[in-house]
Amino acid sequence: MASSSSSDSSAPQTPQLRKDSVTNRWVIFSPARAKRPSDFKSKTPINPNQQQQQCPFCIGHEHECAPEIFRVPPDNPDWKLRVIQNLYPALSRDIPAAEEENNSDSGRVVVNGFGFHDVVIETPVHSVQLSDLSPREIGEVLVAHTRRIKQLMSYDSIKYVQVFKNHGASAGASMSHSHSQIMALPVVPPAVATRLGSMKEYFDQTGKCSVCESNSKDLLIDVSAHFISIVPFAATFPFEMWIIPLDHSSHFYELDSEKAVELGGLLKLVLRKMSLQLNNPPFNFMVQTSPLGENASQLPYSHWFLQIVPQLSVVAGFEMGTGCYINPVFPEDAAKVLREVKVS
Amino acid sequence: MASSSSSDSSAPQTPQLRKDSVTNRWVIFSPARAKRPSDFKSKTPINPNQQQQQCPFCIGHEHECAPEIFRVPPDNPDWKLRVIQNLYPALSRDIPAAEEENNSDSGRVVVNGFGFHDVVIETPVHSVQLSDLSPREIGEVLVAHTRRIKQLMSYDSIKYVQVFKNHGASAGASMSHSHSQIMALPVVPPAVATRLGSMKEYFDQTGKCSVCESNSKDLLIDVSAHFISIVPFAATFPFEMWIIPLDHSSHFYELDSEKAVELGGLLKLVLRKMSLQLNNPPFNFMVQTSPLGENASQLPYSHWFLQIVPQLSVVAGFEMGTGCYINPVFPEDAAKVLREVKVS
Ligand SMILES: Nc1ncnc2c1ncn2[C@@H]1O[C@H](COP(=O)(O)OP(=O)(O)O[C@H]2O[C@H](CO)[C@@H](O)[C@H](O)[C@H]2O)[C@@H](O)[C@H]1O
Ligand SMILES: Nc1ncnc2c1ncn2[C@@H]1O[C@H](COP(=O)(O)OP(=O)(O)O[C@H]2O[C@H](CO)[C@@H](O)[C@H](O)[C@H]2O)[C@@H](O)[C@H]1O
């Protein structure tokens, strides 16, 4: 696939704006603001967790947590993972389902904060990080996400489920015990609507799926039988990575448990490479999927993926004002660096 | 103007989603995640700057800076402010103006990174912060912004100019000497296009300007002859504030020097209240204005304003994934707290 960089993957030396055909976002790639891509390191690396006396997510402290939804294996005090309610939920499952209240006088649009906000405790042991788990165990975490989404699908008023992980304080984590979160929303959120619209436009213009088309040699990091990891062509953040299923599939919850193990393996590899190359940075990962209630045949242009973002720079006034991002590292360069990291 | 809160301005006790009619953004207001609004404090307050030996922005160090564009007063070694080129510009003024290069094979959209990236040194003295300046001096900073925008308007390929300020390391500032930045872009950035579209939709539906309509008693902080400060109805961030000109005006560069002094006074008040109430937090401010080359009569729905955001919380996986934000403080409560701060 063509790209603006020359064949040896060396990136241009003048700044360039790129528009991502998936997210529809302009990103400024700015060599003048860059160190060498191989010099990027987190300034706030994560120390391996110390065992904490007071962590409610640790095994044996289940009574300090909000109610459990399910555990794996079921009914077993020696659990491997637990899905629980969030003790401080952003949305409430105990109020009437959302009804759009459009105050016509003022044009103010208000919706009841009905929804679900759950936590997935990914391991019983405080000192274990997600990337320490085996591919099979990471697969079980991903299957727990899909299982919970399938439960939440039974609520008609839930329009979208966001699965995400915050790891490290400067990536927003208030709990250091390895966990992820699942939020079920009564609206399709703006970034999702924009992404769907952008993928549809690309499909209408080219007859192709924009996510399938992200796969190009100069952006590839690693590949397994059914998944690839890449740096996206217009990566919003330095060393942002996507893991994409090679089979065109609109919804993350369609992931089966066998492929989940394979995905677990590739995710583990990506996280270990990131850690080695970038000095164990705080990071976020987000599942980017399609709204509920729209089936695959309605969404020929939509394709889910995992987005992984190491926390290396601060979003500031320019980004807040414009929604445009400045990325000092060209994606071709980041991909080359990540391709070459040796994981023992 | 009606609002969903009761007349004593006490906010609802259950979560609520609100859609901002200006930014078109959904925000989740979540009392369960809140401390009392009056308990919010920055955990990384800014210490008054120490005089630094090595600061290129200090008076006497002009030779350590990238080239000057203008200073106030002109030709005076005893300057009050300077507008200079950014030494590490995100965009380059030395390459051909942007031409959209649409690689039809791959659908990849690339534009030359032509543009301008300037710095405004707001004071010659390292230890002085913007809020320490007099209303007249702050007015001069704002007039320097408008003057530079008017220069940049002569380039046809410049579509939008973003004026912003980062104050404090966790708000992204890499330089502690008081400064702001001006970036001139060859594209209309996505958040601006979304805002314009949202304001237009509101205008088409109601015949009114959404920014004019933001003015309501329960959201008001302070008022001067030609400006108000408010907390917006669907504030994205806790204690976010907007300063809005009462005269409906589409472009910030239309600000005249007399009104700039008045605006300087209201901005100073807002910054001092924020500092006192929230423990001198890092903050960003952004000028939200209209694209260049569209004049006021084409934009009856568009109205510029200043957005001020104290840095109190971390944007994490949920916000990155959805573009939806969680704000623990209801705007009515934040406005009440800020209205009542006594500034000596
Ligand atoms: N005993 C208990 N039982 C059950 N649940 C418990 C619990 N103790 C704590 N929790 C919950 O566990 C969650 C841990 O989540 P994270 O550490 O990933 O980040 P948090 O949601 O705090 O905020 C980050 O992520 C959000 C969403 O992206 C951002 O809004 C925010 O600014 C950022 O700091 C919290 O939501 C907390 O409410
Ligand atoms: N001697 C000199 N002469 C001229 N200019 C000089 C100079 N020395 C330094 N500069 C420039 O001065 C500017 C100071 O800007 P700020 O401190 O507001 O934040 P910065 O732009 O570094 O990045 C923050 O803001 C941007 C934009 O929002 C984010 O992308 C980023 O992550 C965040 O840290 C820098 O842009 C720097 O290049």
TrEMBL record, chains A, B:
Cofactor: Zn(2+)
Cofactor binding, note field: Binds 1 zinc ion per subunit.
Annotated GO MF terms: UDP-glucose:hexose-1-phosphate uridylyltransferase activity; zinc ion binding
Compositionally biased residues, Low complexity: 1-10
Pfam families: GalP_UDP_transf (PF01087)
Protein residues bound to Zn(2+): 55, 58, 126, 177
Gene Ontology BP, a term: galactose metabolic process
Active site residues according to the UniProt entry: 179 (tele-ump-histidine intermediate)
Superkingdom of origin organism: Eukaryota
Claim: Metal-binding is one of the keywords in the record: yes
Limits of the Galactose-1-phosphate uridyl transferase N-terminal domain: 14-189
Keyword rRNA-binding annotated: no
Family annotation (InterPro entries): ADP-glucose_phosphorylase (IPR053177), GalP_UDPtransf1 (IPR001937), GalP_Utransf_N (IPR005849), HIT-like_sf (IPR036265)
Region annotation Disordered: where it falls in the sequence: 1-24, 32-51
UniProt keywords, alphabetically: Carbohydrate metabolism, Metal-binding, Nucleotidyltransferase, Transferase, Zinc
PANTHER family according to UniProt: ADP-GLUCOSE PHOSPHORYLASE
NCBIfam families: galT_1
Protein name (database record): ADP-glucose phosphorylase
Taxonomic lineage of the native organism: Eukaryota, Viridiplantae, Streptophyta, Embryophyta, Tracheophyta
